[in-house]
Amino acid sequence: MSARLSAEIAEAFCTEGSVLSCVPMGNGHINKTFLLTTDKARYTLQKINDKVFPDVEKMMSNVVKVTRHIAEKRFTVSPVPTKDGRYFYKDKTGGFYRLMTFCDGKVCEKVTSAQEMYLVGKGFGRFQADLNDFSEELFTVIENFHDTSARLKRFLSIYENGSDRKEKVADLCKEYSEFFFLAPLICRPLSEGRIPERVTHNDTKINNLVLDEKTDEPVCVIDLDTVMKGSLLYDFGDAVRSGGTTAAEDEKDLEKIEFSLSYFEAFCQGFLSETKDSITSSERELLSLSPMVMTFECGLRFLTDYLEGDVYFPVSYPEHNLVRAAAQMALLKDMERKKKQTEKIINGFFAR
């Protein structure tokens, strides 16, 4: 980002001090993120992808409400208002920006120990617990975001209507078809009221949690764009999917992809230490399956995007989304092989 543009954006917000630098930060799929440094403070500046989030005002309304609620209990990042009282800025070219207070600490791009996975679980569990008494209304910022059945319906429509890449994915699509039964396992009981609707993050990748540099304790959850009503199972399952393997999300060597039971048990210990007493019996029954559902959904999204020509997830090479989809399938298969062990682990925690 140019010095001129960063200064223009900083001038629009209620920042402290004069801008010293604005440099790229992180590796998120959707928004462009920068570290904005002034002579008095640091901030996280993001250019919002308004194709993914078409109503920026509603999205930021959710972020403001949720962070204010958490801030009454503990530290969290907070949106910085503009000088005209809004929480986003629209530049002359139509680009949308938001500014957040900066959180010192580190993020995990890949879990390296069971202890680290325990802390990730504790951090996301605490986020859920802090919002257990949240009572304000929230907007739906992305329709059907974790409606896995709707994701499957879209995938089938795109596949059946043809794609230049259809032949390349035929074998992988057949593998995914064996797991179609997973699609309604969370979204159906949620829509029918059989599991509770809660405030959820909805994007609990492990790098969306900041840990203390010295103690490794969870500091706060970040990237709150997708905060809205949903199921606790989304957050539990996606965090396990993201951190429950030592392999990268786009690992090409499928032999390296393994679902770690020790990481799973450590995550459960951390997450349930914060949430166990509030989890309902209907949620408990689906906890062990939720990582499979979220892994299936994530892989299906990569596969769908590949068929559509890579219009959603940024890619580094032409087959990137296909590699991601294959990696998620390898992880999903190992989760299925270890399903009885995961059930036993969860039952053990609730029997204590």
How would you portray this structure in words?
It is globular, with a radius of gyration of 20 Å. The strands form three sheets. It has a five-stranded antiparallel sheet with strand order 1-2-3-5-4, covered by helices on one side. It has a two-stranded antiparallel sheet with strand order 6-9. 44% of the residues lie in helices and 12% in strands. It is of the alpha+beta class and 352 residues long. It is built from twelve helices and nine strands. A hairpin with a 7-residue loop joins strand 1 (19-24) and strand 2.
CATH topology of the largest domain: Aminoglycoside 3'-phosphotransferase, Chain: A, domain 2
Largest sheet: 5 strands, antiparallel
| Percent helix range | 40-55%
Runs in which pLDDT lies below 50 for 5 or more consecutive residues are none
Oligomer: single chain
- Tally of discrete structural domains: 2
**Shape type:** globular
Q: Tell me the span between the first and last alpha carbons.
A: 53 Å
